[in-house]
């Protein structure tokens, strides 16, 4: 189970700053929220939208429900648009794009007179006419028991002359399905049977996608591990002059369909600092797709409505995306990301994905971008900041004592295009075709050994089979994430005690003491200390940093430090601290991004304004690593490290500069 680690970050521009302490990125006069909330998003609100999406889908049951190219999908798009426009808070756009659609006619494969249960691969070519009595052949391998080596058929050299004009049997693994079909085609195979390599689910059908059409490619189907292993055993046992014979028919037709994404962005907020949330709206033609993925789509609608009702406008622009053509290869989200130029892409600082939140045998899953629960698969890019996005959910669940588990950060949903382009990503997932373990059942209930969604891609994916308990857990978590990325927090005003009525004691008629002629003590000398005034860049991004101390401030009043960088690379920023009983306010400044240490080089003007006199000013300089100037090589005084001396640097007075921050997770977590 995920543990809770608290992280405070602030979303700023690429060369922005993060102010350490209780409330990051606090702006003067900001009347926004002082803590993050779930905005009142409930399972009931999600179910209301989900019922509407379900009604749309089932009304088009004879036309493919809500699949690509169907009237049902277009009506669902219209429903999403109307819901968003009714709020008045969003600019709504329908993005059209074309996609190859594929339909299948007769698909039948038999070997040695026995019919096989097969699934045609997406993007496969068909047979011009039925293929009959073709030999069933294997790739060349010295050990067909290890699901490795040549039997994977990743190159044409994995086949010998026996593949020419034959139906070849190839194991899943190592390379993409499209590479296997291309290799078999290059070896002269007439058709391909791919079999699953999942020995833990031996009867699990293999639904493969070739990724794209292969010119003159061999028609390709998938079968389960058990079916493939049985065929493998028969082929190995057959006499050399009596091969197993196969019949193979695959009818398919390609058409081009126009479909749409729906994109909605808040009218308010910083449009150079966009936080994005998405879910796919399309389904499969086999069923109404209420959980997959009407549930994620409905949760976004409920969250968008809740955001529109907030009493203050969002600080950061929130952009929602409802994707089309996900079920045929993540096409909608990919086309959207591809449509963004470099400038527009740089404005998208984070992406959160929600693909199924109401599975009947559910888990509470977060996309495990830090690999702490599930190792990151080979070849998957994990942009910096993704782990912090996941912590938005794990911290939230920790605060409400909700168990949760990490799920594979594999790129198998619409966040793929975002992580491929370096955008930090996370999300939630209630499970699909994975099998529930005993550990998961102990955490969430349900049935061990059954799929997380027993209705996945079936006609039974209906509103009646959505698990409301799961939706009730996920709905407020999604609302909380939207609020967290939308708002920078303001400091909550300190509570004040109401005046007593009547006064606790009547005032005395005469002063209790005669005032002295002279002040008993001279006021504290007002001064500003900056230590060190020159610091090497390596020390500035290390633990040393620069300590700023203002003396002569009125005790228990707020002091404001303003740091004005002069190098043109860092933005000006402010931070506040409270003067202690000795009239001293202390701040600390250091760089946090060691990889960009050279960017910090330059002069920094410092001003501290506090009660008790005129503003105090000074400066410090960060020197390049090869500089011979004063302070190069880490000269200057040490900062306090332990005990009470260290506290001013780790409490709310610390000002921490960060470069390249691409997401905001706001500051406060709820704790009863």
UniProtKB/TrEMBL annotation:
What are the transmembrane regions?
646-667
**Does the entry feature the keyword Mitochondrion, yes or no?**
no
One Gene Ontology biological process: proteolysis
Here the segments flagged for biased composition (Pro residues) are: 495-509
In this chain the Gram-positive cocci surface proteins LPxTG domain maps to 639-672
Signal peptide annotation? 1-27
Q: Where is this region: Disordered?
A: 490-541
Q: Which domain of life is it from?
A: Bacteria
Arranged from A to Z, the UniProt key words for this protein are:
Carboxypeptidase, Cell wall, Hydrolase, Membrane, Peptidoglycan-anchor, Protease, Secreted, Signal, Transmembrane, Transmembrane helix
InterPro entries for this protein? LPXTG_anchor, M28_fam, PA_dom_sf, PA_domain, Peptidase_M28
Q: Can you name one GO molecular function term for this protein?
A: metalloexopeptidase activity
Q: What is this protein called?
A: Zn-dependent M28 family amino/carboxypeptidase
Origin species, per record, is Brevibacterium marinum
